[in-house]
Write a structure and sequence with these properties.
The chain is mainly beta and 133 residues long. 22% of the residues are buried. A hairpin with a 4-residue loop joins strand 2 and strand 3 (53-58). It is built from 1 helix and 8 strands; from the N terminus they run αββββββββ. The strands form 2 sheets. A 6-stranded antiparallel β-sheet has the order 2-3-4-8-7-5, with no helix packed on it. A two-stranded antiparallel sheet has the order 1-6. The protein has a domain at 35-118. It has one helix spanning 4-20, and strands spanning 38-39, 43-48, 53-58, 61-67, 81-85, 91-92, 97-101, 108-118. Residues 1-19 form the signal peptide. Keywords: Signal.
Length: 133
Amino acid sequence: MTRLAPLAALLALGACATAEKTSFNSDIPGVAAQEASFFSGTIRNVYRGDNDIIFVRAAGRWYRTALNEGCLDSIVATNPTFIFDSQGTSKVDRFTRVHVVDGGGMPLQCQVRSIRQSLAPQMVDASSIVPRG
């Protein structure tokens, strides 16, 4: 039995590693079907996509983040500042508010509708299959 213990441990580790892999089979190419979250302290880049979509690089992964409809319509800056307000926690999820600062104006408040892990967006990888919007 003691000889099988290391094998059982390896099989258990393999099962955990497999469970952590993200499947990018969804209605949007290169985007996971299930909702995700990340911690605000791990955010490295934020890129604006089309419509109300932003792409966030956090903890070495990309996340396609949909904000409430029409939220970014009045934003004219190409690189606005995004401030993630997770209301006392550091977890960014569907309950997070995003304050968008467009130049010197007042911040606009948006609500996160969806966060899904994705491949790198086209703004970073020209050959990406992930749509901008």
